[in-house]
Every structure is written in structure tokens, then in C-alpha cells.
């Protein structure tokens, strides 16, 4: 791989060969090569909105129609995307090592790369889990319907003549583009709960200020504290800025793990507190290329 020293790949490979337990923390950079935008930096804007400001309970309370349009669009893009070689390499690692993969991603691409569910911990939920917002209702469902309700259908460029005998489909409007007019979706047309019949449904993702799924966190805690020690921690395509996720890097280091950061940016290596004197590694590059290479 251009820019990465063969000696680093070799030393990582030796460590991998003799390792028993491996932990990974994955972020949006893992799916970047699949065409899905990251949160921070270029692509982190949805129309005029910072993607992070839409990922809050407050934004949903103020404008559920807008927040649903954002998530419906992301569900659509995620369903259109394919897992890349890094998703497959991690799924493969789970079959040959004692490996736990913590993913902050909600796009479903690891699952679609057949990552065994027992070794995949989705700490920020999933775009394809939907749950009721009513405080007294516990309804949750797996839902892959796109669009989830007709009102959230992505508009097509319909002011253009398409020959009905051709295979040409009407081109979708890119509603993430600020120049494309977005029509308001009234609350009554948003997805509602089939159980209580009154509650508004919401995406089953973890927004800022919300607790992470406790059973998931417990199993990560277990992996770190019981059984043999974690030898290597992979930190793949994450800015390591969101907590408690980023805290797992420190926790693994504290338990004696060597850390390998795979990222396009040096900043991520700094944030992960890499220490080359302890034998940590930084592999700069596209996760989709680097991950399959170092896990070969
Ligand atoms: C490539 C690449 C390529 C590009 N190859 N690399 C301690 C300290 C400070 C603050 C807090 C703290 N503890 C809690 C907080 C508050 C808050 C927080 O962390 N704030 C910080 C921002 C300061 N945390 C929370 O609120 C969490 N909840 C909580 O703590 O609850 C407490 C509680 C307890 C009990 C009861 C109630 C409450 C919840 C956090 C939820 C985060 N949710 C989101 C949205 C999910 C839904 C959605 O998708 O819309 O999760 S935010 C967003 O950030 C998303 C991501 O999973 C997460 C992480 O982002 P990620 O994946 O790292 O992406 P980017 O864009 O940041 O980085 C991409 C990286 O890839 C970059 O480094 C690129 O260089 C790289 N890259 N292309 C390799 N091809
Ligand atoms: Zn309900």
C-alpha cells in the first residue's frame, strides 16, 4: 500500500498471528468507500444542517418531518450502498479469532457482509430499527421498507419526458442538496406506531444525550474485563470524538492492548493517543484498502 511501510505491516502481521483476542472500534470512515458520507468534515452537512445537529432528540421534537426526511434519505442511501472489502475482512476475522467488533455505524453494511451478530456490537443503534416515541409504549421493529411511509418518498425529476418503452427510471432528486426545494411532511403523514396507534415512530439510533443500549455496553465491558487480555485494538475510520465510544480505546490500552489506527487523517491517530514506543501502529489510508491488506 503506497505510503505505508512494509515493516509496519510485517510487525502488525506478527502481532496478529500470535494474538488471541482482538477488539475493534469502527466509525463512518469504514463505510466511506461504500459511498456513505461521514459526519464531520466534508459531506457532514445535510442541506444547511450540520448532520450532528439533526442527530438529537431536540431536533426531532422541533421538526420531526425534517429529521425523518434526513433519516429516510440515509436509509435509502444505505440500502443502495454495498459493503466494501473492509466490512468483509472484519466479518472474516470474526470467524477465525476471538474478536469483538464495536461499530458506531448505523448503516447495516457490516450485517450485510455477514458479520456474525454475536461479535458485532452496534452501540449507536441502526437506521433499520424503528421505535415508538410514546413514553409508555415499548414497540420496536426491524424495518427495511424504503420509503417507510409514502410521504417520505424521494421525489423524482418528473418535469422531464421519459420514453415509457425505455428502461430509464426517473432520476431521483438529491434532497441533501440545499438547492433542491424540500416540501414539508406533515406529522400525520410520518410513520406511526402500530401497537399504541398514537405514538410517532423514530429511527432506532442513539442521539446525543441518549444512553447507549445497556446490554450492548455490558457485553463490551465483559469482553474487556473477563477472559484473556485483549492483545490488539483496531480503531477504524472514526474521529474518536464521541463518547463513550472513544473511551473504549483508552480502556483497551489500559488493559495492555496495542492500538492500530486505520484512518485517512493524522488527527485521528493523535486523538487515539497512539504511542509508537508501546508498539502501536498508524496505517494512513482508505479503510477499504488498508483493512483487508493488514488482516490478510
Ligand atoms: C476514513 C475514510 C476512509 C474518512 N478510510 N478513514 C465525555 C466527554 C465529552 C462529551 C461527552 C462525554 N460523554 C458523553 C458526552 C456527550 C456526547 C459526546 O460524546 N459529545 C462529544 C461530541 C463531545 N455523547 C453522548 O451524548 C452519548 N450519550 C451519552 O453519553 O449518554 C449519557 C447518558 C447516560 C445515561 C442516561 C442518559 C444519557 C451518545 C452519543 C451518540 C452519538 N450518535 C451519533 C448519531 C447516530 C445516529 C445517526 O447516524 O444519525 O453517532 S453522532 C455521530 O458521531 C454518529 C457516529 O456514530 C458518531 C461518531 O462519528 P464517527 O463514526 O467517528 O464519524 P466522523 O465523521 O466523526 O469521523 C469519520 C472518520 O473517518 C474521520 O476521522 C475521517 O478522517 C475518517 N475517514 N474517510 C478511513 N475512506
Ligand atoms: Zn407505540
Automatic annotation (TrEMBL):
Keyword Cell membrane attached: no
GO cellular component: nucleus
Keywords noted in UniProt: Metal-binding, NAD, Transferase, Zinc
Taxonomic lineage from the root: Eukaryota, Fungi, Dikarya, Ascomycota, Pezizomycotina
Species assigned in the record: Aulographum hederae CBS 113979
Active site (UniProt): 124
Domain Deacetylase sirtuin-type, first and last residues per copy: 2-296
GO molecular function term, any single one: histone deacetylase activity, NAD-dependent
Family assignment from sequence similarity: Belongs to the sirtuin family. Class I subfamily.
InterPro entries in UniProt: DHS-like_NAD/FAD-binding_dom (IPR029035), NAD-dep_sirtuin_deacylases (IPR050134), Sirtuin (IPR003000), Sirtuin_cat_small_dom_sf (IPR026591), Sirtuin_class_III (IPR027546), Ssirtuin_cat_dom (IPR026590)
Name of the protein this chain belongs to: DHS-like NAD/FAD-binding domain-containing protein
Binding-site residues for Zn(2+), renumbered to this chain: 132, 137, 193, 196
Amino acid at each position: 500500500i503506497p505510503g505505508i511501510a512494509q515493516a509496519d505491516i510485517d510487525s502488525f502481521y506478527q502481532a496478529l498471528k500470535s494474538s488471541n483476542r482482538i477488539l475493534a472500534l469502527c466509525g463512518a470512515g469504514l463505510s466511506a468507500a461504500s459511498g456513505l458520507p461521514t459526519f464531520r468534515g466534508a459531506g457532514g452537512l445535510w442541506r444547511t444542517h450540520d448532520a450532528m445537529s439533526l442527530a438529537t432528540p431536540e431536533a426531532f421534537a422541533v421538526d420531526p418531518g425534517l429529521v425523518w426526511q434526513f433519516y429516510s434519505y440515509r436509509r435509502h442511501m444505505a440500502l443502495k450502498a454495498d459493503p466494501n472489502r473492509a466490512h468483509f475482512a472484519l466479518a472474516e476475522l470474526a470467524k477465525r479469532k476471538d474478536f469483538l467488533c464495536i461499530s458506531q455505524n448505523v448503516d447495516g453494511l457490516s450485517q450485510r457482509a455477514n458479520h456474525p451478530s454475536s461479535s458485532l456490537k452496534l452501540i449507536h443503534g441502526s437506521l433499520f430499527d424503528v421505535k415508538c416515541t410514546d413514553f409508555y409504549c415499548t414497540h420496536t421493529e426491524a424495518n427495511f421498507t424504503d420509503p417507510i411511509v409514502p410521504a417520505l418518498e424521494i421525489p423524482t425529476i418528473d418535469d422531464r419526458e421519459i420514453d415509457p418503452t425505455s428502461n430509464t427510471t426517473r432520476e431521483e432528486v438529491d434532497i441533501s442538496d440545499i438547492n433542491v426545494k424540500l416540501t414539508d411532511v406533515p406529522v400525520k403523514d410520518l410513520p406511526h406506531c402500530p401497537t399504541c396507534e398514537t405514538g410517532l415512530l423514530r429511527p432506532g439510533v442513539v442521539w446525543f444525550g441518549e444512553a447507549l443500549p445497556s446490554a450492548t455496553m455490558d457485553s463490551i465491558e465483559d469482553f474487556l474485563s473477563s477472559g484473556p487480555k485483549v492483545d490488539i485494538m483496531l480503531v477504524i475510520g472514526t474521529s474518536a470524538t464521541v463518547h463513550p465510544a472513544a473511551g473504549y480505546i483508552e480502556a483497551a490500552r489500559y488493559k495492555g492492548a496495542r492500538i492500530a489506527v486505520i484512518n485517512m487523517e493524522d488527527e485521528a491517530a493523535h486523538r487515539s493517543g497512539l504511542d509508537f514506543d508501546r508498539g502501536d501502529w498508524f496505517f494512513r489510508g482508505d479503510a477499504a484498502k488498508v483493512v483487508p491488506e493488514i488482516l490478510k
